[in-house]
Amino acid sequence: MESAIMSDNSLPRLSRFFIIFVCILQGFLTYMIHHGSISSLLLQQSTILYWQALLLVLPLVFAFTIVRLKDRYLWQNLAICVVVILLTTTWVNWNVEEVDNISQYDGVVVPYLGSLCVLVFIALPWLQTCIKNKQWHVSYATIYDHLCTNAITVIFTLLLIVLFWGILWLCVELFKQLDIHFFHHLFFRNNLFIYTINGFLVGVGIRTCRLQTHLMKAVRNLLTLMVKGLLPVLSFVALIFITTLPFVGLDALSGAWSPSALLMIMVGLLITATNIVYKSGLKIPPYSTPVRMMVNASLLVLPLYAGLALYAISIRVNEYGWTPVRVWGYLVIIVSFFFSCGYAIAVIRSRKSWLHPLGMINRILLPGCVVLLILVNTPLIDPYRISVNDQMERYLSGRVAANNLDLTLLRFNTGKRGQEALIFLYQDTEFVSNTQRKQRLEKMMTEHNRWETNGELDELKEIQPKFTADFIQQKLVLAESTSMPEESWWNMLQNNQQVDVDLCLRDSDVCIVNSLDLNQDGISEYLLCHIERGSDISCHVFAKLREEWRNIGHAYFPPTTVNVAYFEQALRAGNVKTKNKQWHDAEVGNEPVKIYYPEAD
Questions:
Q1: When you count CB atoms within 10 A of the terminal residue's CB, does the N or C end of the chain come out lower?
Q2: Buried b / exposed e across 155-165, counting CB within 10 Å, b at 16+?
Q3: Angle, nearest 10°, between helix axes 324-349 and 289-300?
Q4: Pairing between β-strand 591-593 and β-strand 525-532 as defined by DSSP bridges
Q5: Are 232 and 294 in contact (CB under 8 A)?
C-alpha cells in the first residue's frame, strides 16, 4: 500500500520535465483555441469542443499517472480516455450545433466539462494503479491512498495559483502608485501569459506533490486527525435534525427553497468524513463505544436523508417540471441513496471490525459513478432531451399556462433542443395569438445572453421614448389597491439613474408597484419592489418633492429572509402598510440628528 505511493520518489528526471512541459503546452494550446488567429480544418466551430475536452483531460491524466514515457500502460490509459472523450463529446457537440449565442453554448458545454473533471478524479486511482502495479484490480486501500493524494494535490495547486496571482496583483498595484502600468498589461491583459503561466503552475503543483510523498503523508495524517474530531459533531447534528423533523413535519421541508442541496451536503460530508476515519480505524476502533454508536446511528439514517432529498426535488419537478439542473440533482441524489444504503448495510454487517464491508462497497459504487457520468453525456441519459420534452409536454397538455412557460430555460440552458422548441412555439398559432406573448418570444429569440434585458432598449430610448415608456408600463404590475401613477412618474422612472428599471423588463423577474402614505401627510408615495428568483429583493420609495418625483428610500434583503412566494402575493394584493419605527431620531436644539440603531434593528 505505502510502496505504491512511495514509488513516486523514483520518478525519472525526464518524466518530471514532461509533467511541466505538457501542462505548459496545455495552457498554450488552450490559448490558441480561444484567442489564437489560426484558421484551419482543425479549428472549426464543430471541432472546438473536441479540443477543449481533450486538452482538459489528457494533460492532467498524463501528469498524474506518468512514471516512464515508454510504459505502454500509460499510452493505453490515454487511449481509453480519448475514446471516452470522443464518444461523449460527439453527443454533446450535437446538442450545441447551430446554436447562435455563447450563453446557449455554455449552458451545455460548461456542465459537460465539469462532469469530465469529476469523471477523471474518480477514475484516476484505477489508471494510476494500472501503471504502477500493471493490473486493473484495485484494493480499497489503494483507492483511498490515491484519492487522498490527488485531492491534496488539487488543493495545493489551486492554492499555489491563488498565491502566485496575488503576488502579481500586489506588484501591479505598487507600480500603479508610480503611474507605471506596464506590468498591468503584461500580467493581466496578456492572455498568452495568463494561459501559459497557469499551465506552468499546474505542472509545478502536480510535480511537487508527486515527489514530496513524505509531506503529503504528513498533511493527510493531520487532516485525518481533524476529521476524526469533527465526525462525531457532524453525526450529532445529523441525528438531532432527523429526530426533530417528525415534530415539525415534512411541510416545513418542502416549503424551503432548496432543501435537497443542504441534505446532499450533509450526506456528502458524512460519507467523506467516515471514509477518512474508517481508513485510520481498520485495526483499532477509532472511538469509544458510545461515540462509535452515535456515528453508526448517523450512518443508519443516511438513507432517510437521501429519501428526503428525493422527496424535496420531486416536489419541485412536479410543480415546475424537469430542468437540466434538476436532472443532475436527481442523479446525484440517486447515487447518494446507493452510497447511503451501502453504508447503512456496512454498519449492520460489521461484527469484528468497525465498518468492515465499507471498502468493498466503495470499490463497487465508485466505478458505477464513472459509468453514470459517461451515460449522462450520451443519448441514454440526456438532461437536455429530458428537460425540453417535459417542459413542452407540460405546455401542450395544459399543465403549465403559455404565459408561465420558461422561455429563458429553453433559450439558454438546453442547447439545440431548446432552440428548436422556441421555433415550434413561434409557429404555434395558439401561443403567438397573444400579441404580448409573441413579442416576448421574439425578444427572447434575439437575445444573446441570459443577462440581456432588452436588446435594443438603449436605441429605443433615443428613437422612440414613448414606446419604451409604454413597454415599461406593460411590464410593471400595479397592486390591486394602486391606481395608475401619473405620466411624470413613469417618465422619471424611465430616466432614473439610481433604479435599474431595465431589470423589470426581464421575463424571469417581476416588479410590483404599491401606493401608500409613508409620512402620514395625506399624499401617497410609491413603493416599487423588484423580485428576482435567487437574488436579492430590492424595493425603492418614490415621493413627489417640489413637483418632482424623486427616489427617497430603498431596501435590499436576500430572499432567504422571507417567503418569496408569500411576499410577492402580498405585494400584488396590495397588502402593504406603514409601520412606525420603535426608536426615533433626535433633535438637539433646532438641529435634527438621525440615529441608526444597528443593535435594535
A1: C
A2: ebbeebbeeeb
A3: 140
A4: unpaired
A5: yes
